[in-house]
Amino acid sequence: MSYNSTWIMQFPGNFNWSNAALVTKGMAPYGAVALGEIDEICERLLDRQQEPDAWEEEWCRIGARLEKVADAADAAGHTMSAGSYYLRAGMYYFTGERFIYPGERKREVGRKSIDLQTKGLLRRYPNIERVEVPFEGKSLPALFMKATGVSKRAPTVVVFDGMDNCKEMSVLFNGLEFAARGWHTLAIDGPGQGETLRLREMYARHDYEVAGTAAFNYIAERPEVDQKKVVVMGYSFGGYYSARVAAFEKRFAAGVSFAALHWDLAAWQREIKRRLETDPKNTAQSAFHFRWIMGHIDDGDAAIRKAEAFSLADVAPKIEMPYLIVHAQEDKVVPVASAHKLFEAIRSKGKHLKILTAEDGSIYHAQADNRQVGVEYIADWIADTVVNRSA
Q1: pLDDT tens digits for 6-24?
Q2: What pairing do the DSSP bridges indicate for beta strands 323-328 and 351-356?
Q3: What CATH number has the domain spanning 127-263+311-391?
Q4: Which helix (H) or strand (E) holds 328?
Q5: What value does the mean pLDDT take over residues 206-234?
Q6: 138 or 283: whose pLDDT is higher?
Q7: Structural domain boundaries of the chain?
Q8: Please, which contacts does 340-345 make with residues 24 or more away whose CB atoms are closer than 8 Å?
């Protein structure tokens, strides 16, 4: 596989749309989307790349179609089928929302995507529970997936999303694998992520250990959880968050960056801004997304100033627990040098770096081209490092 393959570059010359399509295609192994439906959408979009509303229209069109099928199935008592259609409809709405500028329309589509995905997940997976994690007088929405057939306290993985993902995705491509191994998963939308950003207007913050501590406090109260075997994990931009949490919240047994973000975030965003001004199609993120998650949608300079605090330079050396970094050698979203920088800065004797290549089956950022390759490696490492370790 290469970046020129249609699996990765669905829209040749348009990295912006291709990246978004790949993230959605990557959910196919988990039943959250159907490749035939995605192919139908992308076929229509190929000739509409110059139309500003085309992306939203085509993805939401199929979302609306499947929503009607889901409603009919639900009314007929066909709960499992309804759940499948709701889940796919919600995922397509979430993809369609991606390039809508923040405002009432984006909030409306985001709300619908979350509602439909939740309906789908709860119907398809009775071992998933929607929960609220207390946080600074408010709460963070999360999904707790229990490992079925486990009678005693079990290991648990707390998963924070990336910049443009959501807990509804995390609970599937991570949680299903972990549940199969007898572990629970708390997939959570922290500040600046998923539902927390879209419906609660809680923006990204550099001191993510606050969210990490809230998640651990919640997990520690659950009777299913072995408090001594709780792992914090973040993917994509969440790779910064999980490292930050691991540095300051010492109760976690281990940490994982599923893609590493150790760099000068402000400098990186200045470069993204420059590239967007030159050609808005040549980056993985939209022109406004970073400003939005930072809470400065109308002021790019303010967003970049806020980003100056997002650094692991003085933080990574504080990571003492076992820590895993998984990164793609050919990552074009986050250069592989970031993974090496983070690995070198961590002082833990239990640190481990895995660079995945085409031979491993994945070349893309956070393994969006083949999620299972990354997740299985992470699960094996957690098993060896945390779950099966001697007391």
Answers
A1: 899 999 999 999 999 999 9
A2: parallel
A3: 3.40.50.1820
A4: strand 323-328
A5: 97
A6: 138
A7: 1-124, 127-263+311-391
A8: 341/260, 341/262, 341/263, 342/243, 342/257, 342/260, 342/261, 342/262, 342/312, 342/316, 343/260, 345/262, 345/312, 345/313, 345/316, 345/317
